[in-house]
Amino acid sequence: MRLSVIGCGYLGAVHAAAMASIGHEVVGIDVDERKIASLSRGEAPFFEPGLTEILTEGIASGRLSFTTDMAAAAGAKVHFVGVGTPQQKDGYAADLTYVNAAIDGLLPHLSPGDIVAGKSTVPVGTAAGLAPRVHATGATLVWNPEFLREGWAVQDTIDPDRLVAGVPDADSDGEAANILREVYHPAVAKGTPFIVTDYATAELVKVAANAFLATKISFINAMAEIAEVSGADVTQLADAIGHDARIGRRFLGAGIGFGGGCLPKDIRAFSARAEELGRGESVGFLREVDAINLRRRERAVEITVSALGGAVFEKKITVLGAAFKPHSDDIRDSPALDVAVRLHGLGASVTVTDPAAIENARRAHPQLTYVEDRDEALRDADAVIVVTEWDEWRRDLSPEHASTLTAGRILVDGRNCMDAAAWRAAGWTYVGMGRP
Ligand code: UDX
């Protein structure tokens, strides 16, 4: 099928390449000339495992191309809209400027029978507001939210847990949904749940999923706060409650909390939208979820200061990680980098290392020292703090080896991902988050 993808950021670039990899003919469109030039050369503009391979294959096969010219969308059967919906500069609500611009730019190139499939995360009610403009061209608007995780984006796009299509009331014969079924043919063939619903439900599925995940993380971080004042161990607590299949162990990783381009902004936009709808109190707990999350960053700083005897001024601290999570170079709202910046603000001499995110981190926070080589970064440190759980230290750094490099023997584990017993046995002071 011929497809267009408007917006070639994280979501759109992966979507375009993934759709080409399952046999479609795809044009990716974006206003950013540098991004389009890079994608056209087969170079991913961000770190995402597997993306370069499918970009290169798609371009070589002739099925995948990128352009800044919106007119290239003409002739495609389905037009995916995957532009960003960032947090507004002066509030919590989502900024829909890019969504509106993408739809307006697309309208002149639509033909009757086309499908416009919105993928951006939007406040509930957005699709209903956009639909009349799209339907006036004879095309049909569907809302088809995206649930991809960074680091697993290619796999999540081709083989998702579920597919959701919000369709207009008029699509009672299911025509639009059936076209989307054809688009996602490999997933549909293997029986992936495909939920056809109305616009509002489709929009809410996405924000509800992210709100639930954020709540789960903040729940366990709240338990970490209680563990800290009662002597309990939050990791054992998570293991124990996680054995209950109704609860489940995933997303019960206590530590410095969540960040990234989605969870923080999505829960804030959800609160803002609920307030607009007169139901702010229904998701009032999301403010608490946000507050718990932000407190954990400060707590990691407090723990580090106290482990270093009450002050970090002029102490050498090596920060292991900058990305908001491993397998990503994304530093948007990264708790890891936030902790590094706070320690630097207290007068510590901070050295940051990360396998993928150094360039992005340096651009955002040039005041920190960045060292690419992990061992170089560890040299002469008075204390080490783990803030992103990359395998490069979680799995591959032994306390014996670290001891040959550092000056001090203090390990603060902001992700509870290191082997506490092994580090203690090697003579280190190990401090986790929410652990005795
Ligand atoms: C998230 C959703 O998972 C995805 O479905 C949605 O489409 C976009 O937002 P992503 O931002 O890529 O995806 O990251 P995710 O894997 O969800 O992690 C988010 C943050 O939570 C990270 O900072 C991570 O370190 C943190 N986290 C995750 C925890 O602190 N503890 C956990 O147990 C799990």
Folded structure, characterized:
This protein is α/β, with parallel strands linked by helices and 436 residues long. The protein contains 18 helices and 14 strands. The strands form three sheets. A six-stranded parallel β-sheet has the order 3-2-1-4-5-6, with helices on both faces. Strands 11-10-9-12-13-14 form a six-stranded parallel β-sheet. Strands 7-8 form a two-stranded parallel ribbon. The radius of gyration is 23 Å and the shape is globular. The relative contact order is 0.09. The model has no long low-confidence stretch (mean pLDDT 97). Bound molecules: uridine-5'-diphosphate-xylopyranose. Residues 147-150, 210, 213, 217, 251-253, 255, 257-260, 262-263, 324-325 line the site of uridine-5'-diphosphate-xylopyranose. Uridine-5'-diphosphate-xylopyranose (UDX) binds at residues 147-150, 210, 213, 217, 251-253, 255, 257-260, 262-263, 324-325.
Which architecture of the largest domain would the CATH scheme give at its second level? 3-Layer(aba) Sandwich
Low-confidence runs (pLDDT<50, min 5 residues)? Answer: none
Rg over alpha carbons: 23 Å
Number of strands: 14
Beta-strand fraction estimate: 5-15%
Write down the CATH class of the largest domain: Alpha Beta
Q: Find the structural class using helix and strand composition.
A: alpha/beta
The description of the largest β-sheet is:
6 strands, parallel
Overall pLDDT: 97
The CATH topology of the largest domain corresponds to Rossmann fold
